[in-house]
């Protein structure tokens, strides 16, 4: 079936990881099923030994769980989407906890918490957009006329203090997960990123996220608005000197527009 979305995705390791000669600890996936778009990002906790493995694991599990469910049944109301997100979250978090325990036993010398990670799951089936997130992901939506909204804002204020966020596989992560459903009939674009980019993409009022940066998103969406997109363009941008000089963290960005 012909794709109904144009999508660009890319990831770059942060400076500390590059200097240490190790790979980044972010992971992401993009899938489209009959016009429904699935975007998943994860950011492994930098203080944990197997954080990159944890990020890759939760993204893989999310794809395995959600792709068969995307065409499972019609979801035509906010209540139906909310119930679906509750079901998906319960299953995904339980599967990750089990997989983390099994991996820790198989490897030996590590604990499940050594795979600690965030996860952000976005499902777009116009006019609906549903978000399930543990941790500090960011989701921006663009409407007709270029209007931007922070659908999922990074935590602000006290929530930005180190250790304030409970991550997977902690059993309490499900209680703290954010679940959002929006009906957006004039949706013209989506952006999902890990927290390595939030200081570049979001305007803050002190420590509180205020709004997406209009100028930077206008430039970013031009990369994917055209009929033909170069998959390497976004990766080069994320690895470029300018972005690297502004953030030392791993960074992942997904951009999508409906055709």
Automatic annotation (TrEMBL):
Residues 14-224 form the PPM-type phosphatase domain. Gene3D superfamilies: PPM-type phosphatase domain. It comes from the Bacteria. This is PPM-type phosphatase domain-containing protein. It comes from Micromonospora noduli.
